[in-house]
Amino acid sequence: MLSFVNGKFVPETRAVVSVFDRGFLYGDGLFETLYVRRDQPFRLAQHLDRLERGAEFLGIRLPFGRKAIAAFAARLIHRNALHTDSLLRLALSRGTGPRGYSPRGADMPTLVITQHPAADRPSAAPRWRLATASVRLPAGDALARFKSCNKLPQILARAEAESRGADEALLLNTAGWVAEGASSNLFWIQRDTVFTPPLESGILAGVTRSVVFEVCAALGIMLRERSLRPAALRQQDAVFLSLSSLGIVPASHFDGQRLGTSPLVAHLRRGYWQRVETEIASPPSCMTDSRKRLARTFRDCSTGMDADIDRVRQPSKSV
Ligand SMILES: Cc1ncc(COP(=O)(O)O)c(C=O)c1O
Known about the structure:
The chain has nine helices and 15 strands.
């Protein structure tokens, strides 16, 4: 399998970055995980929007423009020729620089794109056991909205959940409200309404979370943002999680106790995958012109025409 590293397509064994890279040293970077169906990434523009917003927040200049990144991603997928559902991972770091936390002098960002086979999508959704994590997320954390490479709370939470026989951790925030999973956003259902914690609770602005909002609107299902105490989660009709790599995943247990079920979860899951199929087949008419252009760039470059990629600019110095 090939990977893309700073403008070059290289075999996995040669896909390496410097030991002085600040992504490795300090987690000074960002990443995105995208679902690839029929060789096309779902919601590429939205993932690039989040990457760009995060890069702006951290003061890291993307070494390539969005169209170039779309072209590189298309070429990578074409050359790897997996032809099965897969995951695309974009990683951006501030690159190498002088020793110490100061970002001064670190002006050659690193951009890596890797592709990974996706888990088989069973017709029946996998159901996750959730376990409350000891580690808490800072409520209102501005950094939480971006997918930064600082994931130690999530790593500790997932390890703790797995040690207790669970599949995913449920993280609370410092104010004691339920926040999100280690790698997923949280939803619950009460009667006919879907609820999810607000972004201000210190959670990632998940791309799949926003698609769930759209699917609810399209299906005429009410969705509200609300804070909830963990004890109250058990009383909900059903609980589910959302993440790019798996879509919508129902939760079966919370801290060992069985959770309820609702037909709405399967309804939403069907709506979600229908949306993936439809958008992959043709960009929806509601897409903005810039998103349509990006989708077109991706499709043009998927044909394996190197010319498109040759025209993109090489890594440039950031300020
Ligand atoms: C902390 C956290 N929350 C939520 C999500 C889900 O985000 P998305 O739907 O963009 O994949 C992830 C994904 O990895 C995550 O790491």
